[in-house]
Structures are given as C-alpha cells and as structure tokens.
Amino acid sequence: MTIRMRPVLTAVAACALLAGGPALAGPDDNGLTIGLGEEFPNFDGYINTSRDGVVMTRHIWDTLIWRDPADFRYRPLLAIDWRMVDDRTWEFDLREGVVFHDGSAFTAEDVAFTLNHYADPEAGARSQRSVSWIETVEVVDDYTVRIVAKTPFPPALEFVAGSLPIYPSDYFETVGPDGFGQAPIGTGPYALTGIDGGNYILTRNADYFDGGGKGTPSIDVIEVRTIPDTATRIAELIAGGIDWTWNVPADQVAQLSGFPGVTAELGSTMRIAMIALDAAGRTGEGNPLTDIRVRQAINHAIDRETIVANLVGGNGEVINVPCYPMQFGCDAEAGVVYAYDPERARALLDEAGYGDGFSVDMASFRDRARAEAVQAYLAAVGVTANLEMLQARASFSAWREGQIGMWYGDWGSFSVADTSASMSNFFNGGVNDGARDAEVIALLETADSSVDPAERQASYSEAIRIATERAYWVPMHTIVMGYAYNEALDFTPHVDELPRFFMASWR
Amino acid sequence: MRRLVVAVLVALAVSMITFVLSHVAVDPALGVAGDSATPEDIEAIRVQYGFDRPLVVQYADYLGRLITFDLGTSYLSNRPVAELIGERLPATALLAVMAIGFALALAIPLGVVAALRPNSPIDRFALFLAVTGQAIPNFWAGLLLILLFGVQLRWLPISGSDTLAHFVMPMIALGSFATPALMRLTRAGMIEVLNADYIRTARAMGLSRLSILFRWGLRNALLPVISLTAVQFGFMLGGSIVIESVFAIQGIGYLAWQSMSRADMPVIQAIVLLVSLAYIVLTLLADLLNAAMDPRIRTKA
Fold this sequence. Notes:
A: alpha+beta; D-Maltodextrin-Binding Protein, domain 2; Dipeptide-binding Protein, domain 1; Dipeptide-binding Protein, domain 3; 16 helices; B: 2 domains; 78% helix
C-alpha cells in the first residue's frame, strides 16, 4: 500500500507547490480578508437587503447623515446640517466638494434622483418600508435638498441615516439599475474594484472626504470571500486564510479564544428572538393557540432565564416586550412579565380544556439547541411541539404564510432604533402579524405616524401592554453575534450588527 | 430513436415535476418581496411576475420559452439564468471530472488487486476502505481533510476555486464517496471474469499473465463499471451541493443551494433540468460505450 500511496501524496504536494503562496490581503500590506456566508445577487443597497449586503452598502456608499453606533446620535455625513421645515418636510444642507468614485461631483440632484427613483414601487426596492414614506425629494439648490414625507413620519431620520444610500444620477441613468447593481459607484470610504464569482475587492477611496461621521479609512484593500459553511470559515480563520468572520456559534467562540493569534468574542446585538403564536387562527380556526389562556400557559411554561444563561451566552438578555429595549418607544416597563411557573401553566391549560395537552407545529432556524429546549419545556406541561428546523427564509415564510402555529424566530429591525421597525413589523395586520388585534393595529398606526414623541411613546406603551397581556408572543431574548478575527486587528463590534471596516485598522 | 424519445419524455416529466413542486412548496411572491413587505407589495409582485395566473398557463409559458433556450431571469439578481449557470459550470465540471478520475484511479487498481487474491489481507483492506468510504458522510470527510491538510499541515488552500490546488480536497471528498461502489463492482466483475472459460482457455494457450489480466479480463469486467461511472458522474454534477458549500466552490451545486434558500425558482428549475439532462445523456453515452466494447449488447439495442 505504501508504494501505491506515494504517487498520490506526491501529486498532492505538487499541487500545493503549483498554487504557490496565495496572494491574500493581510497586515503586511495593510489589507484585510474577510469571510462572509452569503453571496450577493446584486450590490444595489435598495435591492440587496440581506445583512451581509447592508454591510457592503455602508462601505461603498454614504447616507445623508450618520448614526453614531456608540451613542445612537446623528452626526454629519453627506449632509452637514439638517432641520425640520414642517411636520412632513426635512431640509438637508449638503457637503460641498464630495466626489463619487468615478470623479464626478456629488450634488443635490443625486440625492433627489436616487430617492425619487426608489420611492416609486416600480423600482422594486426590496424593503418598501424604507422608501414608501417618501412623497418626493426636491432640489432647492445645488447643495440643499428637501425630503417630503407622505404623512408625518417620525422615524424618517432613522431611515435617512440607515437605509438610504445616495447614488450618482448620471452614471445610474447611463448603466441602468441592473448594470449599476453589478458595477456600483458611490461616495463611500471604499470602492468596489473587482468581482470574481463570490469574491469581491474593495479598495480604499483615497479621495474620501474629511469630517464625516465615518472618519478616514485606514485599511487599503478589503478582500471579501464568500464561504457558506461556518466550519470552513472558522478553519480558514485558524489557518490564516481570512482575517475576520462572524456568525460564529457561541460554543465555538469559547473554543476559538484558545487559539493563538485569534480573538473571538460574543457581541450584543439589537436582534430579538421571539416565539410568535398563531393567536389569529391562521393555521385553523379555533386551534388551541387562539385561546388566551393557552398562550399565557406557554409563556409560563418556558424557563427563559435558563435558556439565556446556558444556550445564548455572552451578554444575551431575557426580554419581556416585543421590541428591543434600546429602540425609541420600546417601554420595557409596559410589558406584562410571565415568570417561569410550570404549575401555573398546567392549571391554565386545564382551565382552557387542554389538560391532556395538544400538539402544534413549530419552526425555527437559528439554533437547534434552543429550539429543542423550548420543545422540552412545552412537553413538560403536556404540549407537543413538532419542531422543524429550516433555513432562515423558509422558516420565516412558513410563519408568514400561516402554515405553523409557533415560530421561534428573530428580528433585527434593519438596525433601526425605533419601535416602528420591530413591533410594528409584526403587529400591523400585515403578513407577519399572527395576532391581528385591531386595538394594537390602531395604536401602532398612531405611534408610527405621530410627530409628537410623547404621544408616540404613550401609544407604543399601550400597544406593548396589550400585546403582552394577551400573550401574542413569548418574547425570548436578545441574540448575541459571534465574531472571530486576527488578534492584531483593531475591530469593535456594534449592537446594530453592522461591522464597520472603515473604522478598523491593524495594530 | 426509441431511446431518444424516452429521454425527451423523461426530461419533460422532470421539468413538469420541478415546476409544480417549486410553485407549491413556497409562495415565490413572498420570496421576491422581502421581509417587511406589506400584503399590497406582495400582491403587486404577484401580478408583476405573473404568479397570479393558473399554474398550467405559467408552465406552458415556461415550456415555450424553454424551447427557444430561454431559461428565464433570476428573480433576485435580474440576470439571465443561462448566464449564471454558464459562469459556474466550469468549476463544477472540473470538480466532477477530477473526482470521478480520482475515484476510478483508486477503485479499479484496488478492485483488480482484491479480485486477484480474494479473502487475502489485501482484499480485506480494500473492503475495509470501501465500507469506511461509504460510511463517512462527505461533508464530514471534507471537514476532516480541511483539518488535516488545511489547518494542521497547511499544504492546501481550504476554500475557494482560484487554483487547481483548491480542487484537491474537494476532489478527494467527493471522489472517495464514489470509490467504494466502483471498487466492489470491479472486484466482483474481475472475480467472475477470471473464473470464466475463456480465461482458462487463454491461460492454456500460454498468454502472458498481464495480457490475460488486462486485455481479456479487465476489459470484460469493466462493462458494468462504465454504466455505474456514468451514474456516479451525473451524481457528482448535481450532487456536489454539500461539497461545494463546504469548500466554497463557486459551482452549480452551490448556486442551487443558494437559490433554494432564497426561493429563486427559475434558477432551481434550470439546474434540476440541466442535471437530469446530464444524467440522461450520460446513461445514453454509457450504453453506447458498452455497445462499442461488447458486440453482444449492440445486437440487443
């Protein structure tokens, strides 16, 4: 056998030699290689709203204003100043001297063109919520622009700062939306200079303006590699093939910390996990979950503290409200809290006529261990949850199409720090809404559109109180994000789950 | 001719099944619409993409375009499906050729050696390899290879498809899965052939051992192996989803996986159709090759 194996090994070794040293970006040439899990169908930030896509968008383009990830305050970016003209109109003074990656000048015309283009549903922005509030955008002069909302829209600045990148109007019109999505140009700190299959090259924009909230980028070249398999990404990190990755499972973060040269950490996020319950009876009228006592029983049956302590890890926290407590309007005090009390759960089930239990379909995607823990807690009070672990999108679709009674999912609010991006997304009567409570829908409508912060807050608080009292969800916990990177990299994770490599540098 | 008609019918049936399944399994409008879409957005998309029409009409439309080689446009990237597949076909084809080559290079010599000395330690060893190879799931084999050659020894690049070296580990992981069946078939065929009368005649005629083994023995023993190779090759073209994901190879399998998780129906349909066509063509080729090597099959066909 040794004789037979030798040629194979020789061939393997020869191939390794042929490949030579891979020309990967690294600290020596001030480059950074990152590993992401998902390839982008398109670079257009209005079309590609996946998490990894949003990360790219923030590097290639700028928004008018910048929300500082440390204190959530707004700071200048493409706009140097802004003010409310009336309850529907915001005016922005634009920065002069900013150029796009192709050298053309940035003016108010670009802002008006981009936002007007995507405010039209025909343009096909994937996240209509980000743009549908815009009625029109007017050019006042070359460096002044006004955004007019259809109705008073309190979270306007959150969207302006978060999900509305500004495109060069001339170039966009020349190449068309599809051409733009494949060869984008922006004002951002990095320019996309190469696409090869799932690998992308971002090159530092040497002409990037000073004084914006994003600062001045330090790393010269960012090489982005798509590696779908988590285990492979981790192996690449250990072997030095990549310098940074995320979505590392909590248990592996602990193991990775032991490797020399690797920093691994769990960062808090504003993503919340919940078990949504089919209170409206979409899976069948009169099913057990339409009974408030059953939903309260389920809330009492699950020991969330234990799940968080053992299976979430890091700074994960139990939540008692259907929103992220740092969001505007998310009044953590307003939520009715259900303590872990299996006796009480059994009594409530008995009262509802389900003393012998019942069975229900539950889908989840992020973490099998947590979903199975929930399954076990439910089994302990007699509820059989048929768990189906699916891909994220498939499991979310199952919930939205009303095929499952329980969905243990999570929601990142598009990193928008306003309750309209979390609770309103799930209780507004739309496809995500498994409760369809007219009272809650009306309260949220008021809260989402009022310009009076006090009225907004009061409406959200009341909506939260009703939704938790009627136990439409089991609010579970915040999600922690696992990061792993080369220990020589100066990198700070933020709660909005948006890594900012323009703020990173090699030590 | 009859074979060709059957092949076309099979392809048609496959296209129908994938079409219906992919429209029943998920609501494509929801997939396209995104996470925060309102019911109105979804309805608008349903009309815009024609999802509101009866399934039969949608299928007829799809077939009509298929005949003109129009595979449609990806919902997500808005690019022609043919272009997406064309970009990724080379990586998958290269991997499949390397893997089947690796499997044959390992399976045939092992099978022959095992057949020469049935129940000897060599035979036992070959059988052990075969059982182990089949028992190890290929994603796990892939990870073991990554740990050994990528992390420990650092001989090979772990993921990507830039150089030939990137294909070595995926080749082993994918090929080792096909090896056991091929080896056992070679072994069984060789044992049978070596006990056949014409081999005894050849021995009696004083032909050299090597000539008997390869010219008369292996050639006959390989007939079933060719058919199996064709099937395995088809499997590799379509079934390397796991391996391509593990090693981040930008191929058809990875595209299929990605499209499935995003409900990008035109891409999924095209890939399934392509893979089934590959199967059909490969089996046809294997039959022809068998006929060329064995006149007895030719008369039957």
